[in-house]
Structure formats: structure tokens, C-alpha cells
Amino acid sequence: MRLLIRLLVLIAVALGLGLAVVVYYIANPKLPAYTPAQQVHYLEQWSAADRQTYYFTPQGTQVKGLHYDWFQALELPFSQQRFAAPEYLARFGFLVDPAQKATPDNPGNLPVGFARHQNPGSPEQFLDITCAACHTGELRFNGQAVRIDGGAALHVLPSTVPTLRGGSFGQALVASLAATYYNPWKFERFARNVLGADYEDGHKSLRADYKRSLDMFLKVAWNDTHRGLYPTEEGPGRADAFGRIANASFGDAISPDNYRVANAPVDYPQLWDMWTFDWVQWNGSAQQPMARNIG
């Protein structure tokens, strides 16, 4: 009996250590260092106002109920560094200009494609990741950067499926969301940052609203993992975006029978001349404008 107890204790310790290793690597993704460009050069095709409109106009999405100000107040799991700091998000491959400043269109000074979505008649503002996030590219040479508006992105955006390799924005975001909720000191800092003078009256309802958003992220992560929807670890620039969008639109929103494995070896296409094509998407499945913009 005593031997059995010791064996069970050893198994529990081993499982605990294994879980700790997994959590550590999920919460500390392997990311390249951020090296800011000496200067970002913009092609003479759009005005600065046109570019701001493309980069930061919301397109109607809500990232799992995540409020814009919540995103700005998030910390990394094991530090007080801001998750939404431009220099941190740039490590996932999102585009920032070292000279950029907060603007009315981009009050959080976030990378290209991180916008605010607000429904008519509602005071709530949600994080909205727009098409510009995936359809804006950049070339680097000798410390200089050339921005390619409408080009292909090279970030690691979508996956929430936990892996020891890490490096995915989605995985890192869920780790920060969970750490903020379950660490009472971190959540208090978060709530005071979000609520300011309304902390005493609003922190309980904020925690409940935040938990609903976190549950949505965790539900998607569990669903994607146990169904094996995304078996390929996508690197920079690679994503079966059409497959992911179809799973969200027809699987999450309509019926689980519509889920399909999404692992096509494709990347984000450039946008120029897209309007001249009769059919778009990598499988040639979309012809009319509504289907083209289903994402």
C-alpha cells in the first residue's frame, strides 16, 4: 500500500512538472528579437490619410468579445510588460513604424490592422483585426524598410492550438488573458487601468465580462485542438485563412458538422488587380462580393 502511494505521488509530481513545462513554453513563445527599422519608406501611391484609412478602419469583427481597452491593458504572463506594446507585437511579424504615434484612428498606437469596432448605439469598443493586418507587407534591407500596401504579410497570427514551439499571436494572447484572470494581483492592476476612478463600482462586472470573453477563447482553443482542425504548425506568412474563416463561419456559428481540416499550403495573397479576377480564394470558390469578403 505504501509503495502504491509513493508511486502515485511520483506520477503526480511528474505530471505536475510536465504541465509546468508546457505552461511555461506556451506563456513564453519563442519569438525573434525586435529590430526596428532605421526608417520606413512608403511608396508614392496613397496619401497618408488614405493609408490610415486602410490600416485602421474597422470592418465589423469582434475578436471574441475582447474590448479594445482590455487589449491595451493586458500584461505578459510572467511580467508587467504590456502585451500590446508595439515593439512586442512586432516580434510576431506585425508591422509598426518606429516613428508612428497614436492618432484618432489608432489611439492605442497599435500595428497595422489593429482597429476599434463599435456597434451603433453602443459605448463598447472591441478589438477588430482588419484585412490590412494580413494584406500589408514590408521589405527590409540594410536597416531600411519599404512598406508594401496591399502586399502579403509575414506574421504568425491565427493559431490558438497549444504547442511547445509557440510563436503564435493567438496562443500568446490566450496565455496573457488567462494569466490576467487567474492571477489576482495582475487582474487588479488590469482592472484599475481599465476602470480608473470607476474601479470600486465596476470591477466585479468587469471580471464577469472578461471571463465570458476568456471562455470564448478557451472554447475555440479546445475545439480546434481536440478536433485536429489545424494539424500543421504555420510559420510566418503561412495560413489557410479561408479554411479557418470557413470553420468559424460555418462550424462555430452554424453546425459542428461543417468543420473541416484546414491545412492548405498557402499564404496571404497580394490585393492588387484582385478586382479583375472572376474567382478568388485559393480554391477558386468565391465569385461575388459578399463571398469574397466573408472574413
Automatic annotation (TrEMBL):
It comes from the Bacteria. The chain crosses the membrane at residues 7-27. Keywords: Membrane, Transmembrane, Transmembrane helix. InterPro entries: CytoC_perox, Cytochrome_c_Peroxidase/MauG. One of its GO terms (molecular function) is cytochrome-c peroxidase activity. PANTHER family: BLR7738 PROTEIN, CYTOCHROME C PEROXIDASE-RELATED. This is Cytochrome c domain-containing protein.
